[in-house]
Design brief:
single chain; 3-stranded antiparallel sheet; Cytochrome p450; binds protoporphyrin IX containing FE; two-stranded antiparallel ribbon; mainly alpha; 374 residues
Length: 374
């Protein structure tokens, strides 16, 4: 059901389908996908390293000051936003600066709002956040158009695709900008935060993964593409994180014609919903499913068969899968290389579903320098 034969549901993917459906039809996405998977991704290691270093600088400051409460989710949102802004839109942000209103806006704009008069101040805050996000997109689109008009050599990035496909429709361009911006960073930031959350309550797994990081990258700051392949246990930890906390908890496809699955008649014209969150937690597929156990993804373990799909499956699966896997590995490897973190009492393990899944209390930690070798 995740083959191109079954389209994504138009109502659910209102905005995304505009841009991506069209690009798939043109074949542009096949090209994008190939580029994203191969040499282009290698070339992104510089950006991943550089932006992750900014986060490390910020954490070094906080560890020096012995700050008692840090929201890891907020910090991770900063780094993944910095990365996507640079890679997709060629804009340099520096969101590790606490003063940035932009980071807060982006976070607020995904909030679930209940239309209750008592919520008025919060609703206004969310509206303001959305306005700021859209105004930023409109400004970047305007800057890029001006650059093109003035004959400036511009990168062949996502922003160019957005300009090409929206014709003269400025609103659509901004819609697509916001969608890609959020799709391209929020999910990865949530995954990183959940990963810290699970490592924090599994000291033995934390020690094992730190040892691997020490063995593979030691004290060096510049992580190379080749190093990523050797961080196999860290890969397992990140995969297991997405099994328990599928940051995009589900997807959907239109069933165009009648069909029978496992003896059950499915009438054409209905929408099939797939919950990677639910399948990831089913005993039928994963023994003792609520236990965080990265060894399920050991290279020699049997591969999960159509029951593990945090990036969806098939040709319309996540375009940023490899990008996200590299980015999260670089950030986690640097973090584990240099810091110890301890939850503070206000930290909870509750989840918040705002279309994407995030840790409700933001993974609140105090952070200290690691004494090598510790
Ligand atoms: C942990 C990180 C991420 C997760 C779990 C994730 C998951 C997903 C899922 C489940 C879908 C829906 C696919 C479907 O409905 O079949 C999707 C779509 C998409 N994702 Fe991601 N994603 C992540 C990171 C990223 C990043 C970093 C980018 C960009 C650099 C990105 C770009 C996209 C795009 C463009 C689509 C739409 C693809 C299409 O419609 O053809 N994602 N993602």
């Amino acid at each position: 059901l995740m083959s191109p034969k079954y389209p994504k549901n138009k109502n659910i993917y209102k905005r995304l389908s505009n841009l991506f459906e069209f690009l798939w039809r043109l074949g542009v996405m096949i090209l994008c996908k190939t580029i994203l998977i191969s040499r282009y991704l290698r070339g992104l290691m510089g950006t991943f390293n550089e932006r992750a270093e900014k986060l490390m600088e910020k954490l070094t400051e906080e560890a020096d000051k012995k700050t008692e409460e840090l929201s890891m989710l907020q910090l991770f949102n900063g780094v993944t936003l910095d990365v996507i802004a640079k890679v997709a839109f060629d804009v340099d942000l520096d969101l590790q600066k606490e003063t940035s209103p932009f980071s807060k806006s982006e976070n607020l704009s995904l909030s679930n709002i209940q239309l209750n008069p008592k919520n008025r101040p919060f609703i206004n805050e969310v509206r303001e956040a959305c306005r700021l996000l859209r105004a930023t997109g409109a400004q970047w689109i305007h800057d890029r158009k001006t650059a093109i008009k003035n004959g400036v050599d511009v990168p062949k990035d996502v922003l160019i695709q957005i300009l090409k496909t929206a014709g003269q429709d400025e609103e659509l361009m901004v819609d697509n900008f916001v969608t890609f911006f959020i799709a391209g960073h929020e999910t990865a930031a949530n995954q990183l935060a959940f990963c810290v959350m699970e490592l924090g309550r599994h000291p033995e797994i934390m020690e094992k993964v730190k040892k691997e990081v020490d063995d593979v990258i030691g004290m060096k700051m510049d992580i190379r593409y080749e190093d990523l392949g050797q961080l196999t246990y860290l890969s397992q930890v990140l995969k297991e994180t997405l099994r328990l906390y599928s940051t995009v908890p589900g997807t959907s496809r239109d069933i165009l014609e009648d069909m029978v699955i496992d003896g059950i008649h499915i009438p054409g014209g209905c929408v099939a919903l797939f919950s990677s969150y639910v399948t990831g937690r089913m005993e039928k597929f994963f023994k003792d499913p609520l236990t965080f156990d990265p060894d399920r993804f050991h290279p020699d373990a049997p591969k999960p068969y159509y029951c593990y799909y945090p990036f969806a499956l098939g040709s319309r699966a996540c375009l940023g899968k490899n990008f996200a896997q590299m980015e999260t590995k670089v950030v986690m490897a640097k973090l584990l290389q240099r810091f110890n973190f301890t939850f503070i009492p206000r930290q909870t393990f509750d989840l918040l579903d705002t279309e994407t899944l995030r840790p409700k209390s933001g993974v609140l930690c105090s952070i200290r320098h690691r004494k090598h070798s510790q």
